[in-house]
Amino acid sequence: IQAVPSFLIKHDLEKVILGVIDDIRSENSNSDFNQRKEKILTYMACRSAVKFGDSLSLEEMQALVKQLEKSESKFSCPHGRPSMIILEKSELWARFGRKYTGFADGERFRGINC
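and the corresponding structure tokens:
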């Protein structure tokens, strides 16, 4: 290997390549070259993506959210795992041990003891 894309610089290249090879092995080998190339690029992006526990600056986080909003597949990674979820207000309140009272957006907590 003589060069790598800039998005791979911060990553363990050996792990990324071995992961991509492992992913490709599990794929259908009957696909044409362009399909395989697209899969390889997709897997490389996934393998080198920001992972849970990675430290990011505020600017990096904001840039990631903007990129995700422009993505065709915002709600999952190439492997089908969710990249975001949608919670109803009532579920969010329940997870914090509170009862959702149905007050309108923009209103304050109406004296609810938080």
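(Above: one complete record from the training split.) The chain has four helices and no strands.
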